Amino acid sequence: MPRRQDVKRVLVLGAGPIVIGQACEFDYSGSQACKALRAEGLEVVLVNSNPATIMTDPDLANRTYVEPLTPGIVEAIIARERPDAVLPTVGGQTALNLAVALAKNGALDRYGVRLIGASVEAIEMAEDRLKFRDAMREIGVDVPLSGYARSIDEALGLVQTTGFPAIIRPSFTLGGIGGGIAYNIDEFHDVVQRGLTMSPVHELLVEESVIGWKEFELEVMRDIADNFVVICSIENIDPMGVHTGDSITVAPALTLTDKEYQRMRDAARKIIRKVGVETGGSNIQFDINPYDGRMIAIEMNPRVSRSSALASKATGFPIAKIAAKLALGYRLDEISNDITRLTPASFEPTIDYVVVKIPRWNFEKFPEADRALTTQMKSVGEVMAIGRTFKEAFLKGCRSLEMGRSSLLFDAADCREEDDDGLRQRLRTPNDRRLWALFEALERGWPVADLHDLTRIDPWFLTQFAELVAHRADLKGLTLAGLTAQRVRQAKRDGFGDAQIAICVGATETAVRERREQLGVRPVYKRIDTCAAEFESFTPYMYGTYEDECEADPTPRPKAIILGSGPNRIGQGLEFDYCCCHAVFGLGQEGFETVMVNCNPETVSTDYDTSDRLYFEPLTLEDVLAIVHKERAGGGEVACLVQFGGQTPLKLSLALQGAGVRVMGTSPDSIDLAEDRKRFSALLHELQIPQPASGTAISREEARDVAGGIGYPVVVRPSYVLGGRAMAIVYDPGALDRYMMHAVDASPEHPILIDRFLEDAFELDVDAVADATGAVVIGGVMEHIEEAGIHSGDSSCVVPPYLVAERHLDIIRDYTRRIARALGVVGLMNAQFAIKSDVVYVLEVNPRASRTVPYLSKATGVPLAKLAARVMAGRTLADLGFTRDLTVDGVFVKSPVFPFIRFPGVDTILGPEMKSTGEVMGGATSFGAAFAKAQLSVGQELPTSGTVFISVNNHDKPNVLGTARELAELGFRLVATRGTAAYLRAHGVEAATVFKVNEGRPNVADQVVNGQIHMIINTPLGRASYFDDRTVRRAAMLHGVPCITTLTGAAAAVSGIRALGNDALDVRALQDYHAGTAIP
Q: Strand pairing partners for 115?
């Protein structure tokens, strides 16, 4: 069937910022869809608020809007661009909800725009819990006993039928947000109240418990001719009760009987047909009672989902690309498979290997959070590993997690210290450390049957784990000399890394690697081909294993191996994958064969057609050296690029260089010099560039001496970490002692850095590109909106700077150039500065890609990472015609997005340790409008009228006066706590007094809940008022009230409010901002 001819211009809806439950897998799916649509000759208009994505690169779509994903803004884009259709199925839950809103408010009808990929009816049937339940009953598919509630009273009536424990699932939310499991009536009240608030339609499903059942997913597709294929079956190792995003999963499903699988497949076909998805992919979740075989359908996502990325990478089947083509009217049998070039998309993928996905959590960033895993997702990222057996894939996945000491699956210190009762409790309640507790129990000899009773994990998986424990025990009885080729090969086939074997035999990892290579035991590489080797694969997408035949077939071309950023985590996320992709693009232009190494299935970098060759492998020294060895076998020089993937590859740079691998661009020694505080301080002293007084320490005593010499307060942090991991501001020796007890775990091989804290300073970031001749181009100077003390990743920032004197900017540019030349930077460099008392200080310098590179690239229209990669390949900036510092047309504000809603009880106050998961960008002609757009994109709509609550500490009272006066002039009513209100009134600003939480009722929290307060300005008031502050901030978050915790942030908000009052927000494509920009 030829594609439909009535669609020539398509608006693709993106997913917005990276949040828990909706991460960079939608950059992957959106990018695939844009490429597929343009390949069909269509004009593509894209809207997304996330600047860190590949999909918002201006050359991926014809028209690219980095704008808030709200009905009003998107309608303005529709009015300007007049698309024929909107594709909402590659932008996650955000895009689906937005499409439904545009349909219901009449915007699509007003402009004659149709939805493709999924109809409103299909979306609502799948997403509306009641409609889905009724539809399943109509086609004879069993579902849990459940009911639908729009109020607490209705929910209480339903739980009388379902009983406890009860599952609460809000409608139209992502990652199970607002949902949970209630075991008693008090918990039920709390979860239902939260769920009704979180659901955009204020409804939820109360469902009978199926906790402990086995959970499965089928990734399926259907076309307009009713052709149906199962792309991949996925089994959750954790039983029902843990969100699938928080569960270890395996593909294909390993414990289903053939009969059970066929029943599930038949049910999936009936479901997708009934719901009416006829032009795309869907994810359908099932549960099976392990005792009687009862199968029920849990839910369906009528879109490309988080699991779709996993299924695509597991099979090599490009789900998003095929879904986009199906939306144009093609049939599955009319779309060819890029990997085999012979089979059509109607040919169901078959795999002859095992894929394991393991989640990555960041609870260390939120120590007050409940670590129990329930139906609400809490993980921030994931890794995927591929092996010939489950054991091999599983252990490869574990070593891909990059969790330092806490990632050691065996001998986990936190579990070893538990007595049997404590260990039993860890096993009974799912949490992020349950897997480690499970292995500790197996090492203590606990029977599989007992562990099954405690965890409800299928005995087959528990037996596999027990066999790994037994194998490790055998290895511990050996010495290095006792390692034979047969023993080493079997250990590698079971997934043991060289480092793990080294611990067992009492040797170093290097010694084990040398012994293994002497014995001739090296990995071979197999190709992902979608068809279990039935047809030849034309795409070198590979995984390592220990067998005889190798399918790598390296070429004699010169190669650049780009080391990716591994699993998403706070501090190292999508921004670095963006840079790695641009390294591929730039090095490809320079004639290199590009080789990507990464273990994150969510990313564009691990798409089969991004690089020339792809290795889906852990980012460890062992695995990278093996890939280098294999690529060298084809001839041609092999070099590694380590500076674009964050700290993950940087930590390998010195070892790679020591092993004889050429590192492109800035030398590992220069990278180490920038991280080594003593060496870097000496360099700045030599250059006569000011820096805060600083020192390093490896013990509590050293730390006290250094801090005493510098003077409190001090900023303390480990070296070689990202995202301010374990960073803190310390005000006294006692707090410093407590910090030193815990911080060493974050970076155990390196010292703790101690710096004088510059209170009330302005902070700025600079990204620059330098070449081997010493030429340096400043990509941009970004001013932080929050003052010093807030991590740069958690601070909104603006380019160009709007409050910094030009003479200070000149000094910053001069320091940047001098430092880049002194370090011998070739490629990207990020520098952070602070201005205090008219002095410009250098805070730190990182000769690598930073998380601001994508944002700055979108603001300037110049792909900095791509140009830097070409410079690292040997070009000069002059060769590229890139010799002048960049400027921007307009104002661009980047704002962070936080996961606090996932962690009840966690305070929302910000500090020096990064807590945001993603970012958005707002662009406009004025700072106020750009800031307002950025706030709208993070879900905080600034009020233009109403009541503002102000409560600030004594230090901030004089500085809040100007903001309060401006708000009063804008017509806002001001209320404040007693001390702040008295201060404002004494200085001529009228403010009513409101009770603190512990002073009586009604208090400020009551007013927030009742909708009487529309914005909050609250700076920390010290320990005595901690409970009040936290309660107010928490209430604001739950009820969508903007809560601003810095005075600079409050001033920016007033600018945004003023802009909203003056004009409606305009929309503008990046192509229009950059129309006059010459792109090298």
A: 86
Residue whose pair of structure tokens reads 């970004």 in the numeric block: 782
Q: What is the largest CA-CA distance in the chain?
A: 85
Q: Which two tokens stand for residue 63?
A: 């028209």
Neighbouring-strand partners of residue 166: 182, 208
Residue 1070 sits at φ, ψ, to 5 deg, of -60, -35
387-410 burial code (b ≥16 CB/10 A, e <16): bbebbbbbbbbbbbbbeeeeebbb
The residue-averaged pLDDT of 19-27 equals 87
Q: Are 524 and 550 in contact (CB under 8 A)?
A: yes
Fill in the amino acid letter for 645. Answer: G
Query: pLDDT tens digits, residue range 920-937?
Result: 999 999 999 999 999 999
**Alpha carbons 507 and 481: distance in angstroms, whole number:** 10
Q: Environment class of residue 1068 by beta-carbon count within 10 Å: exposed (0-12), middle (13-18) or buried (19+)?
A: middle
**Can you name the residues that pair with 755 across neighbouring β-strands?**
694, 715
Phi-psi group of 530: left, alpha or beta (phi > 0 → left; psi -120 to 50 → alpha; rest → beta): left
**What 3-state DSSP class applies to 488?**
helix
Q: How far apart are CA 1053 and CA 1034, in angstroms?
A: 20
Distance (Å, rounded) from C-alpha 52 to C-alpha 432? 28
810-to-302, 815, 888 alpha-carbon distances in Å: 53, 9, 17
The letter for the amino acid at 138 is E
The H or E element containing residue 958 is helix 957-969
Amino acid (one-letter) located at 346? S
Query: Residue 874's CB: how many other CB atoms inside 10 A?
Result: 13
H helix count then E strand count, the chain: 38, 39
DSSP 913: S
Written as one letter, the residue type at 231 is I
As given in the structure block, the two tokens for residue 838 are: 């008219």
839 beta partners: 836
Radius of gyration of the chain (CA): 28
Q: What tokens does 876 get? A: 């000069």
Cis check for the bond before 2: say yes or no (omega within 30 of 0). no
**How does pLDDT run across 762-815, given as a tens digit for each residue?**
899 999 999 999 999 999 999 999 878 888 888 999 999 989 999 999 999 999
Query: Helix or strand or coil: residue 1056?
Result: helix
pLDDT at 568: 92
What backbone torsions phi and psi does residue 755 show, to the nearest 5 degrees? -130, 150
Return the H-helix or E-strand segment holding 975: strand 973-976
174 burial (CB, 10 Å; 0-12 / 13-18 / 19+) is buried
- Please, which residues have CB within 8 angstroms of residue 132's CB and are 6 or more apart in sequence? 125, 126, 143, 275, 299, 300
**Residue 849 · residue 765 · CB < 8 Å:** no
Pairing of strands 797-799, 891-897: antiparallel
State the sign of the Cα–Cα–Cα–Cα dihedral 665, 669, 673, 676.
Answer: positive
Residue type, 46: L
Element holding 895 (H helix, E strand): strand 891-897
Q: Which residues pair with 168 in a beta bridge?
A: 180, 206
* Strand spans (E) along 140-196: 146-149, 166-170, 180-182
Sign of CA pseudo-dihedral 433, 439, 444, 446: positive
The answer to whether the beta carbons of residues 215 and 264 sit under 8 Å apart is: no
Model confidence pLDDT, tens digit, residues 464-483? 999 999 999 999 989 999 99
What is the per-residue pLDDT across 240-289, written as a single tens digit (0 to 9) for each? Answer: 989 989 999 999 999 999 999 999 999 999 999 999 887 778 899 999 99
Cβ-proximal residues to 352 (8 Å cutoff; 6+ apart), any chain? 532, 533
Neighbours of 520 (CB within 10 A): 9
In 3-state terms, what secondary structure has residue 251?
strand
Which of 1065 and 73 is assigned the larger pLDDT? 73
Count Cβ atoms below 10 Å from residue 233 Cβ, excluding itself.
22
CA distance 935 to 71: 15
Half-sphere exposure at residue 132, Cβ-oriented, CA atoms within 13 angstroms = 30
